[in-house]
Write the structure tokens for this entry.
Amino acid sequence: MQSKDHWEQVYSTRSISGASWFQEHAKRSVQLIQHAGLARGAGIIDVGGGASSKARLGHLSGDVSRLLRDITRLELSQHFYDVWHDRAFFHFLTAPADT
């Protein structure tokens, strides 16, 4: 997986809306989460949220906690989240050391 420095450079020097993984609105992901029948306060982790910034979330940004961690090395408590959402993150794990 590319380093934190690599991704910092990507997000600070490129137009993210032109990136191959960018979506203006993740409609399909939202539909799938809604169809899961979760309670309103369910815990959802969005791995590799990248451009899902506070500005894009607007007034809902206060409902979101952000972690800046390497998910391949982060230990999460079992059953901590109700839904794991990842639209493109694992596509970037290309080296044996990433798994």
Strands lie at 44-46, 83-85. The mean pLDDT is 81.
